[in-house]
Write a structure and sequence with these properties.
The complex is a heterodimer of chains A (about 325) and B (about 240). Helices cover about 75% and strands about 0% of the residues of chain A. Chain A is mainly alpha-helical. The longest helix of chain A has 27 residues.
């Protein structure tokens, strides 16, 4: 019962927010953006926690997912639900070119994937006949209305994102609890010991990179159809790489729900409090908040709860 | 079962193994002997796939495995232990065996895991964290248990008896005999103790400076002047 308390609390909060703030477009807009970051943070944590890889390049998956979905829906007439899926697949496909980087570890992997991300941003800028280049890409469909629910409305988008974040968290949990997840957990600090008993470490890491890219691409695609405008500097912005990292570490990147809660809290803090206090350079307050959290609770907010509850820092969320 | 043909390994300018050739049959227990730095662990690393040979061939069950990755060799039935135990971190003892079984043997069989835990006297430690809550003896047994969980045909044991006191060592040797019988295993064991090799192995090969200098029964190789010289520096010690 206590074990499921954080999940239950998040569910109650997710249901209560539209009831309380449903009429407040500003708050609902912030929640929608926070949930987009939450999805990316979840994907980033999946790669970091299970794959043992720290990525500074998730902006590439986010941007590729966004552009793929927007272009396919606008130019090929693909229905938006299918174009969202295509966006996620496009991001997973783009992660394939990053597979050689899996031979690297630690900061070398992080730098390599950062470089890859920059390549995709340049491609989006230069392939202007397809992407619109730096002038931007617009006039693509919004999220559709299905079964009477208008997903392009703030509340509709919010509901869709809550469901998608929850589904991705369930996928993450299933992977984590599987034999693959167990092997990945071991690989982070004892790769030779796992390989020598038959674990194909490179293959498992590749799957995690693909899955992480898929999820990130999906949220990039949804974000594109929510804001209805894309330009390379926005879609491939370093913010899509950095904010999820801050969120995941703040919430507890070794847990499943930590990155989700961390993303929403961090985003709301940034937009409501930090921007109010420091209209210019408000991100510095995020840095201070993160530094404080690391000093007080290195395993993040949810890690802190779990340590207190179980006395074990690596327990599942 | 295992055949090495002119296997040479170089680390830069250093020749770690020089044209090493030997073969062993199914169910055989082979002692691998040699002074420190002779190349014993390098030979294990080469057979198991951690190190690639510069030249030569390694055949396991009549299949050339010299270019196969580590995990693929494990799946073919090549199990090994490390001189310094390497438990899988963040996992319990049981999880260590489960990962080894699922990925190495390609199937999940909890009953067999229970059996291995019993045989290796690890059942009472099954739910302990393998990396932080086991003593040296238990870690040594876990090394062997992990390899067993992959359902190996050949077990490479790298100084698995090192650091054990005499009573524990005798028990471990008896356990290895039991495993050999019970699972019809072929075993290659690296060990410095002549008495252990003589009592456990039907055959021994000796490495010195990366070269194989003797091959025969333990009695033969330990009387071999080249082997005596490699250990003592003089042929008539």
């Amino acid at each position: 019962m206590m074990r499921n308390l954080p999940a239950a609390a998040l569910l109650v909060a997710a249901l209560a927010i539209p009831l309380v703030f449903g009429g407040n477009g500003y708050i609902m807009g912030l929640m929608v953006s926070g949930l987009i970051v939450a999805g990316v943070a979840l994907a980033w944590a999946l790669l970091g926690n299970l794959g043992g890889m720290v990525s500074f390049g998730h902006a590439a998956f986010f941007g590729v997912g966004a552009y793929t979905s927007a272009i396919l829906s606008a130019k090929a007439g693909l229905p938006v639900p299918l174009s969202l899926l295509a966006g996620a697949l496009g991001a997973a496909l783009c992660s394939l070119v990053m597979l050689p980087a899996l031979r690297l570890s630690g900061p070398y992997f992080a730098l390599a994937i950062l470089a890859y991300a920059h390549i995709f941003k340049i491609l989006a800028t230069e392939l202007s006949s397809i992407t619109g280049g730096s002038a931007g890409f617009q006039r693509f469909p919004t999220l559709p209305t299905i079964a009477g629910i208008d997903f392009s409305s703030r509340t509709g988008s919010y509901a869709l994102l809550v469901v998608m974040v929850a589904l991705c968290a369930l996928v993450y949990r299933a992977v984590k609890r599987s034999h693959v997840g167990t092997a990945l957990r071991a690989m982070a600090e004892s790769e030779d010991a796992t390989r020598v008993v038959g674990v194909n470490a490179t293959l498992l890491k590749s799957w995690m990179l693909l899955l992480s890219a898929f999820i990130t691409g999906l949220f990039g695609a949804m974000n594109a159809h929510i804001i209805n405008f894309l330009e390379p500097d926005y879609a491939f912005s370093g913010n899509w790489s950095v904010l999820p990292i801050i969120a995941a570490i703040f919430g507890g990147y070794r847990t499943i729900l930590g990155p989700v809660a961390g993303a929403v809290l961090i985003y709301l803090f940034d937009q409501i409090i930090a921007k109010e206090l420091l209209p210019v350079g408000h991100q510095i307050l995020l840095g201070l908040l993160l530094a404080g959290m690391i000093l007080v609770a290195p395993n993040g907010l949810f890690g802190l709860f779990q340590t207190r509850r179980k006395g074990a820092p690596h327990a599942a969320a | 079962m295992l055949r090495l043909e002119d296997v040479t390994v170089r680390f830069g300018g250093l020749v770690a193994l020089k044209e090493v050739s030997f073969a062993m049959g199914e169910g055989e227990i082979l002692g691998l002997v040699g002074p420190n730095g002779a190349g014993k662990t390098t030979l294990f690393n080469t057979i198991s796939g951690l190190v690639r040979p510069r030249t030569g061939r390694i055949l396991f069950k009549d299949r050339e495995i010299g270019k196969l990755p580590l995990h693929a060799r494990a799946r073919l039935g090549l199990g090994r232990t490390f001189q310094i135990p390497q438990p899988m971190h963040h996992l319990t003892v049981r999880e260590n065996l489960t990962v080894a079984q699922v990925f190495g043997a390609g199937a999940s069989d909890p009953a067999r895991i229970d059996e291995i835990l019993e045989v290796m006297e690890l059942a009472e430690h099954a739910d302990r964290d393998a990396a932080t809550e086991l003593a040296l003896q238990e870690l040594k047994r876990l090394e062997v248990a992990k390899a067993l969980a992959t359902n190996p045909a050949l077990l490479l044991l790298d100084e698995v008896l090192a650091g054990l006191e005499s009573h524990a060592k005798r028990r471990f040797i008896a356990k290895l005999r039991e495993l050999h019988q019970r699972y019809a295993l072929a075993i290659v064991i690296v060990e410095h103790d002549i008495e252990t090799i003589s009592s456990l192995c039907s055959r021994a090969v000796v490495l010195n400076f990366g070269e194989l200098i003797a091959d025969g029964t333990p009695e033969e190789v330990f009387r071999n002047p080249a082997v005596v010289e490699s250990y003592t520096g003089t042929a008539d010690a």
